[in-house]
Fold these 3 entries.
Entry 1:
Amino acid sequence: MKLFLLQILFFIKNKKAKKNIYLLARFVTFLILTITLYSILFHLIMVYEGRNFSWITGFYWTLTVMSTLGFGDITFSTDLGLLFTLLVLISGVVLLLIMLPFTFIQFFWAPWLEAQSQTRIPRSLPENSHNHVILTSFDSLTRNLVEKLKKHHYEYCFVAGDQQTASEIQDAGYKIVFGEVDDPRTYKNIQAGQAALIVATSDDLMNTNISFTIREVSSTVPIACSADKEHSLDILNYSGNTHVFQFMSMLGKNMAEKTFPVRAPHIIGTFEELTIAEIPVRDTGLTGKSLAESRLRNKVGITVIGILEKGKILPPAPQRKLEITNILIIAGSRKEIDNAGNTLLRPSGQTVADPAVLILGGGRVGKAAADVFKEKKVPYMVVEKRPNISTNNDRHIQGDAADINILKGAGIDNAGAVIITPHDDAMNIYLSFYCRQLRSDIQIISRATEERTVSKLFRAGADFVGSSASMGASAIMDLLKPSESSFFSEALNVFMVRVPESFIDKTLSDIGLREKTDCSLLGIKNSGKFVTNPGPDTSFSDNDELILAGSLQAEEKFRQKYME
């Protein structure tokens, strides 16, 4: 009953709905007048023929003829009567069988369905809403971010001003509020001033519009937005955004730094005094050894906190054998990380082929990767199909990367790595499989737009898959929990907790932390002092704060076992 009343109110208050009702009423009035006129003419012609019928009979005859039912129990005998019957029949087909259904659907049924949908989709949040996250676009990045928000118990809502889009988002199981993203009233209705963060991931023009709109409502709420173009950074920062990210450039640099010619630890972030980095096993000479045999803690003073294998984070068990496709995720002080790089990633002494890396795609991701290689003086070659993208220099080839002649001309036979950067996931799967067939030993690093494509790319032959959605969601999530938790890869996060009571006066070896929770202890903080990579004999005191690393599942296991 309440929903029905809301829909009635929609028709009363909505200007478009009221106009539709007015137009429908005019047509119905015209139809009633036409039926009445035909009934009067029916009587006059029947009198002309010498017969007399009641007024009810006149309306009965008119409606049966106009609706083409035509029972035939009442007919005219003169030509005038027959011509009148044809007129009533033809006008009935037009008015009742064509125009009436169309007019009813257009001006009543469709608006009524819209009213049902709009009353089903909320247009505001409760006034006590706070510390929630507002998302102004529905895309792969924000969908990935929502999964992380749910795991860390953050409330969120999408905002959409298009009825169909809003319904699709709601039907997909997400929280949605109906409202235009460039209308200040929308942000007042969703308590934007009390939000933890507002995320804008549309194009640069729309993000600027959204930012100025939000600033009319609140001058303090943090805004995180994406920037497509370099020259948009100043404009987006000026419009009041707190954090501006170039996710495509970040992805390109990330992919470039994972290739074997860039022989240095790939720094993926910092947490307190800790530095988190990645080292490909293929560059270390550790292939075939177990973690225990590598003795990395004793040799270089770092802790292996995870092993990345085809997108999955593996616990760093001491007996786990290292494979050439593994990537070690290590933690330590910056000095310890640099020492690990100098010790494990010594120059091979071999001449680097030209090109050392093949970049398939010269868009934003490919250009960012090329800039890294140019800075580090690593020879590369870009293959780009679009003529307006290629720069026509000696490091660019225009052509289709799916053409074997183009690939061979670009140097795939000699390259040690290939980076696949198109926006089309289907194309990336194809190219990953194709390159793997051409070269079983080449390092393949591919881009994924949708999260569901990551596993397919690994099966197609990719050694590493970079997802802008996952990377961007992790970067935005870091803004929400900067001092408690940080996300450094698709499957690893570092978090800080107070020491559980059950740990006090016990040593790390007594607790068996890694065996029970798959979490690694990276450091202990106490009264301003910080100890990195504590050994197994380290004991815990009452005021300690622990810095731990593991997957989201490992963190959840730790909190359930020791914090609840």
Note: The mean pLDDT is 83.
Entry 2:
Amino acid sequence: MMNMIEKIIAAHSKQAVVKPGEIVDVLIDARVARDFGGANVVKNILDNGLDVDDATRTFFTFDCNPGGSDQKYAANQHFCRQYAREKGIRVYDIDAGIGTHLAIENGLAWPGSTFVSTDSHANIMGAIGAFGQGMGDQDIAATWARGSVWFKVPESVKLVLIGDRPRGVSAKDIVLNLLNIFGANKLLGYSIEMHGPVVDGLSLDERITIASMATEMGAIILLFPPSNAVLDELEALSGKRYDGVNADPGAVYAQQLTIDVSDFKPMVAMPGHPHDDTALVEVRGRKIDSAFIGSCTNGRIEDLRITAEVLKGRKVAPGVVLKIVPATDRIWQQALDEGLIRIFKDAGALVSNAGCAGCAAGQVGQNGPEEVTISTGNRNFSGKQGKGFVYLASPAAVAASAVAGVITGPDTMPEEVANFGPIGKFDQYKAATLRTDAQRPTVVEGRVWVIMKDDIDTDMIFHNRYLTITDIAEMGRYTFDNLSGYEDFAKKAQPGDIVITAKNFGAGSSRQQAVDCFQSLGVHCILAESFGAIYERNAINAAFPILTYEAGLIDALGLATGDRIRVDYLSGDIEHLGNGRKARLNPFNEVQATIFQRGGLL
């Protein structure tokens, strides 16, 4: 008896049955690289003398910067187009929209299928009952070349939503309420199956909104068993009729949780963390400078209709900029046909071509220092959407706030509109001396950095403004320059240093640079209580040592920044070289050891 994730993985492996913890080779139905990761994927293919396994299953999606407004993005896109022509690879170019949404619209992914992308929100495929995963450049290159990739079968949690959904509580509010309950690491590494009467009544667009924030919850994926209505909509979009996929009766779950949504409220995520949520009423009246509606979370036609209901007959507040970006060109055209675009323009909004927009540091949606933005995106990490402060909310709340000039909901808009101007200036970049370390011993000694912060995300480690860098030698200087208190880490780090941190290190994006920057500096290894799922894969595949430990290790060893320790990757032994205390880490598993000894996945 298997649950949903186990059935999908088993169907794409050589095994009839799979169980949590098993590492299996998984055939991937659709293998995608985006514009910021695509050039690195091709570079990995070329540098390792590899070729494309099946061009009909291989795709580029140019969604991060559809305008090519950044020279490096433009160069990467052109490079990928040339490679695509040579290999017969389909390109969903700058006029198409967000790759994950295009996959759903065009039948590249379907219930029960497998999908990988350099997009860390590829697990949005859970909305249609498919397995989707964001992966780093080496993972995608390996998948392009081999057609399959290793994956550890995750444990599953069955989450049942019951109760009467309150009026005004959108799908975005549902997932923000869930984030408020579970945070960023309570469901870390689990596959979450969504069940219950509330789930049964969700539309495809609403499921996409919720599924798109699985990464922010630390989950592998949020899987929705497709309803008949969803299957009908998928058929209307792609022209193909699919069967649903469901868990077997008696399937085993690590946990079964029931949540009553009756008390859910319209929510806002506070700047810095998607899981730092509060009721919208608690922050009502705070001034904003800008507003953004779009992203893979809320760029669907239902989101745009809700936005139009709020904006119709109204104007965006003076001094506020409202940016609206549909998820795909098909949705853009539908909004045009329904008259929504005219409503947006009459209200004073900027409407851009389909794509990811400011969420991915490209196109439109960025904010400046001290600028306050309310956004429908899925992430508001410091620096993620610019240098300002980003609140996350539903399309209705964002549209109402844009009109009012302050954070509010559509039912509580003030009579007087706020009027003010933005302030702030841009920070200067910081540089450090480049360092490299080619040796990879299995027993190492080094100076310790103890950074006991949970949920250090990839934007803190290696900010998205540097994503076009492909030379590892350049990356080290930017390490941690967006982590408060450690902006000068790269200047102070020495070859052979060891970083010890807390839970969920590397949460967030699929960027390989967040691993490679440490290799650039010559850091020996990173020890943490747990790692973000994608970050863990990227580090293992890059042969960069990461190990986990159980709570209490720091105190047991009496460790502090500047101490020296010895670490054995294969045995898990760790020793404080100052006081002689010893403890155990979780050592390399077989796959990690093999990849490490080979010098990397490729």
Note: The radius of gyration is 23 Å.
Entry 3:
Amino acid sequence: MPNRLAQETSPYLQQHAGNPVDWYAWGEEALQAARAQDKPILLSIGYSACHWCHVMAHESFEDAEVAAVMNRNFINIKVDREERPDLDQIYQLAHQMMSQRSGGWPLTMFLTPAQEPFFGGTYFPKTPRYGLPGFPDLLLRVAQFYRSDRAQIARQGEAIRSGFERMQPAGPAHHSGFSRDPIDLARQNLAASFDARYGGFGAAPKFPHPTDLEFCLRHRAASGTQIGASGVHEDAGAGQGAQENDPLKMAIYTLGRMAAGGIYDQLGGGFCRYSVDAYWLIPHFEKMLYDNGPLLERYSDAWALTRDPRFAEVVEETAAWTMREMQSSAGGYYSSLDADSEHEEGKFYVWTPEEVRALLSDDEYAVCAPFYGLTDAANFEGGHWHLHVARGLDEIARTLEKPARECGALLARARAKLFAARERRVRPGRDEKILTSWNALMIAGMARAARVFGRPEWLASARAALEFIRGTLWREKEGPARARLLATCKDGRAQLNAYLDDYAFLLAALIELMQTDFQSRDLEFAEDLAEALLEQFYDPGLGGFFFTSHDHEQLIHRPKPGHDSATPSGNGVAVLALQRLGHITGESRYLDAAERTLQLFYPALAQHPNGYTSLLTALGEMIEPPRVVVLRGPLAQLRQWRQVLGARYLPATLILALPEGNANLSPLLVKPAVPGAVNAWVCQGVTCLPPVDKLEMLLEVLKTGEIG
């Protein structure tokens, strides 16, 4: 008999609809039941692609005896953290405060009927192991604690609320005190944590952290550092090519190591969420949309800097994977692919040498096996191999005494055969809900890649996703809140108030898209989003943006997140996007809100810049405004200029190519068209150059940075 979750749109909640647990979705019905029955709440937060969520479900939530203990003692609430990041943020923070350890998923929290947490953890096994208590025993102890120690629970609840308040940004500072010191300190800290042998920052597990990589790549624009066409990551064995104190080279080297590792799907394209080891070798096999959109941008940037063909291949393959496996027929992008297939993590992706040999000719196998590490010891459980680039083609060509070009052709044929065979396997599950914020990240990634590589099909993919959001998840209204976004859509049902990330990421994506293919309706949409951000999320008293809107459901905490996580901070992205929109439109309110938000967070940036790289990027553009280049002219010539400029790495330059016929432009964009020629207007802050009518002259201006 299905439980209440059968009525939900979330695939994660629907996965639990057949449990014997009397699950509720988060909402007034569940909270009222807890109050009326005076029962504690068991809050379980996870997501559909999460391996350990599946493990706990199979062990405990599908077990009738465990479910009976849960049903007798608790009001059980199941939450999809991707639909309700507001709840996930609050209770991950609470877990961190109570346990002094980082959280994760599944998150298992015990709350009072007033939603205050009093105990929690992540995964709990059914029987004691891993140093953890068995889940049924834990349930009985927690229930007894709730019945007998209300005073202690009340004191802990007050301490948690006080802790939440202390975690809010404490600023503000005055803008006159802004300097590049936090930016420089963050670079030093990243250098100190850089793994010079394998790339990335810190030890295992290793996450891609595309926001940190963007911050490092931008060092080139700030310092004028140059990098050769070969990049710095050609040595696949030792990592001596990386210079630890050069942020640009740290980023390029890391991107190269990731592309060679098992975190990257060597056959199908796209990146997994993280590597469980320090070598980028064995991933947690789930593939998330939110990683792959920003990584498309980073690899496009890296190719623009180095012209390394491997970076172009990664972009090509990841864009193809996105359109093939992650884009719905309606245009929106799906959320994730599961880590598991046939109840085994990674089963879809791993091989044995015998399986591979049976599919390939002798010549193909002779190249493929050493290239992907099949001649080494098994690197995955059960005597399986997960593919990674173990040796370079040049080395293999020398060993086989064959031309490198021939070896490349043999490898390409082998990859095609392995991919075709893998397509016949049982596929991992796909979470087909469409999230506004994650779609925005992929729209930006596809738009940037389309601009850098001149690929109209990638631009069309980004536009299809944007049109889905505009048509399905954007609601025009009359009254004080004239328009608003919704956060998620599944099976045609759009719902839930959107969050700060939805608005900020979509605004940033529109600015990215306008630089690839300017349409005045995108500028109008961007201004509507900016107005909604200011109306619904901005704190006019202290500055900064709340994660939830002013009319959102009241929860026990309302954060203003500045710290980056797997995705960039909503405040950081909002500040950067509002600044850029302000420079495009001349709207001072956008610039003022961005400045006051930076003032609020500046004390935290100055003291502990680690983890705030999106806000630091915005700080850099506050101190030195981006250049705005407006191109006007005949469409064919505009396309030529845009193609040349798009293939260059110009992170602090906004280039808008305006064809004839665009209406409702801001005064800053209204430039006279000169018949038969392209003219470029270059402005920075309040300083503008005379129009430039030669592409070579414009390239020189952008290269030297001389303006005014």
Note: Confidence is low (pLDDT under 50) at residues 228-242.
